[in-house]
Design brief:
The protein is an alpha/beta fold. It has helices spanning about 1-30, 40-45, 80-85, 100-130, 155-170, 170-175, 195-205, 215-220, 225-240, 250-255, 265-280, 305, 320-335, 345-350, 355-370, 380-390, 405-425, 455-480, 490-505, 515-520, 530-550, 555-565, 570-580, and strands at about 35, 50-55, 60-65, 70-75, 90-95, 140, 185-190, 210-215, 245-250, 290-295, 310-315, 430-435, 445-450, 570. About 55% of the residues lie in helices and about 10% in strands. The structure holds adenosine-5'-diphosphate (ADP) and zinc ion. Zinc ion binds near residues 412, 416 and 487.
């Protein structure tokens, strides 16, 4: 195909080059034309020897005799000259003749240029098409996905809430016979990696209908109207097939609540959202098309999306609890060579892990076992994988780390561990290390939080203190002047908790039970006292943390020394140091 195209281009190019050559050579070889005096010309004219005259406006005119001899003579430029010539029976041309050796290459050149122009126009049309195809849709339908409800462990409520949808997709007529209206749209909401996409795929697979997937961000384009056009194309494609599951991931990209401050391309977003709503109300209930959309947060979505007849069923896909985590771990270990792994214990250690993170944990463990050339995936592989998933890969080359930096890290981590063990004894610390990780931490303290539905104020305060423990230890040991950047991410996390406590959870004074988010949507100004309160809170918690460390300074020393010696210490070392057991 490509070769053929090149041939098409090469031929005219060769022709063009040859023609040009011929033109140049022809012009060089042209015999110079003799000049004759005007009187001689008059003589020839009276003797009727002249066959034609090329009469132009130039100073010379070309004369051709009947015996084919040509010469030039001066152009008299008199008004009656042409008439005189004609009366003498001379042919008069008002243009110079083009010699054949010029004419032929000229034709060749023109032809090849026309061809090349035509060709480049044609291929340009292709690129132009490519340019304007930003609105081209790349959602392909997928049939027979290798999923079923069996592929989802846990999430029983979510599965239960979509079972009727599967039935409806299989048998839409049955539902319309009862006059039952199925939701056109379903929102799946929950943290990332909890299996929303998986659930959507399972629905399509269980019902045996094609699956069309796109992400909300695919519709957000710089060009206004492109998003809307993509939506229309998506639905057209799906409808052409009859039944379908349309899945839109990250629906918040187009369906976010409109805020007071108009964002950059909000027009584009509105158009896209409107197109989606129009398309959704456009299909018939009995057609067997269902739109599933996923988002991390339901409360971010525009109420227009959630109205009846649109996305009127909302299903939470939540983080797995202990038993669900055990099921997910088992599911992903199913077809792998499993050695002695205490799955139940791992289910307990993986609080707040999403399904995706658990899958990742097992995958990393499998990779480690494979690297080890071990026959089975063992406990130690999962253990190593756990650190990798939570903290990142350990840096292998650690020679460059200065002794002083190791010391700072050791006291910093010891600070976290000490505070945690004293005020949150229920949270197991499985590991403290001063080995830096690929995620940029100088070291880390791995603690396992307890599963809990709610976090109370006292717990949040304690969490903040644990986060501040690293910086507090640094300050106590090395002095205010020598505190480091190592507390960067700790401070980010503690700030976020404090801000949420004061502005969203109703645990502060300046806003009381008001929610800042709601206040902002109403455009009520809130003053600076929120910031003051957050600052006061963090300062008092910091002072409390410092006091706690100072009261237990020997334990801090012992933990730090052990860390410098061994780089990584585990729960039992810590318990021995702090509780003497
Ligand atoms: P989301 O769409 O909620 O971000 P995904 O559906 O993309 O999450 O999940 C990513 C992966 O995590 C899945 O492909 C699956 O391997 C795993 N996973 C998540 N939740 C579960 C679950 N409940 N059971 C089994 N695997 C799960
Ligand atoms: Zn820290």
């Amino acid at each position: 195909m490509k070769k053929l195209k090149i041939k098409f281009v090469i031929l005219p190019i060769i022709l063009a080059v040859l023609s040009l050559l011929a033109l140049v050579v022809g012009n060089i070889n042209q015999k110079p034309i003799n000049s004759e005096q005007y009187v001689n010309f008059m003589k020839d004219l009276s003797e009727r020897k002249i066959s034609s005259v090329y009469l132009t406006t130039s100073p010379k005119i070309l004369v051709e005799l009947k015996n084919n001899i040509k010469y030039e003579t001066d152009n008299p430029r008199s008004d009656k000259f042409k008439e005189t010539l004609l009366q003498s029976g001379v042919k008069v041309f008002e243009q110079e003749p083009i010699p054949l050796n010029t004419l032929i290459p000229m034709c060749g050149l023109i032809l090849s240029i026309i061809f090349l122009l035509f060709y480049s126009f044609k291929s340009h049309k292709v690129t132009a098409k490519g340019l304007f195809s930003v609105d081209k849709l790349d959602a392909n339908e997928v049939f027979n996905l290798p999923f079923s409800f069996e592929s989802i462990a846990g999430n029983e409520e979510a599965k239960e809430s979509v079972k009727d949808v599967v039935d409806f997709l299989k048998n839409p007529e049955k539902y319309s016979a009862y006059g039952a209206r199925m939701p056109r749209g379903i929102i799946l909401y929950g943290e990332p990696g909890t299996g929303k996409t998986l659930l959507a795929k399972a629905i399509s697979a269980e019902a045996g209908v094609p699956f069309y997937a796109m992400s909300g961000s695919d519709f957000v384009q710089i060009y206004v109207g492109v998003g809307a056009s993509r939506i229309r194309q998506l639905f057209k494609k799906a409808k052409a097939n009859g039944k379908a599951v349309i899945f839109i991931d990250e629906i918040d990209a187009i369906g976010k609540k409109r805020s007071n401050s108009k964002g950059g391309n909000s027009d584009e977003k509105d158009q896209t959202l409107n197109a989606l709503l129009t398309e959704m109300s456009g299909f018939n209930e009995s057609e067997g098309i269902i739109v599933l959309a996923a988002t991390n947060r339901l409360d971010m979505l525009d109420p227009a999306l959630l109205r009846p007849g649109r996305f009127d069923r909302h299903i939470e896909v939540s983080l797995p609890d202990v038993s669900a985590r055990e099921k997910i771990l088992n599911l992903h270990l199913k077809n792998k060579p499993v050695g002695n792994i205490n799955i139940n214990e791992w289910a307990h250690k993986t609080t707040y892990f999403s399904g995706a993170k658990l899958e990742n944990l097992i995958n990393e463990a499998a990779i480690l076992a494979c690297k080890d050339d071990n026959k089975y995936i063992d406990e130690r592989h999962v253990d190593q994988a756990y650190s990798i998933v939570v903290a990142g890969y350990e840096k292998v080359n650690r020679d460059y780390i200065k002794e002083n930096d190791r010391k700072i890290t050791a006291y910093h981590e010891a600070g976290h561990a000490l505070v945690s063990m004293n005020i949150l004894p229920m949270e197991k610390i499985s590991k403290v290390t001063i080995i830096p990780t690929s995620k940029g931490a100088g070291g880390y303290t791995l603690s396992i939080p307890e599963d809990q539905l709610y976090q109370n104020k006292s717990y949040l305060n304690k969490r903040i203190m644990v986060l501040l423990g690293g910086r507090a230890a640094e300050e106590i040991i090395f002095g205010c002047e020598n505190i480091t950047t190592g507390a960067y991410s700790d401070l980010k996390s503690s700030t976020s908790i404090i801000a949420n406590m004061v502005t969203e959870y109703g645990m502060g004074d300046s806003l009381g039970l008001l929610s800042l988010q709601e206040i902002s949507t109403l455009n009520i100004q809130s003053g600076n006292d929120i910031l003051d309160e957050c600052k006061a809170l963090v300062n008092s918690l910091y002072a409390e943390t410092k006091k706690l460390i100072q009261d237990n300074i020997e334990d801090l020393e012992k933990i730090a020394v052990k860390l410098i010696e061994k780089e990584t210490i585990h729960e039992k070392d810590l318990k021995q140091i702090v509780f003497d057991i």
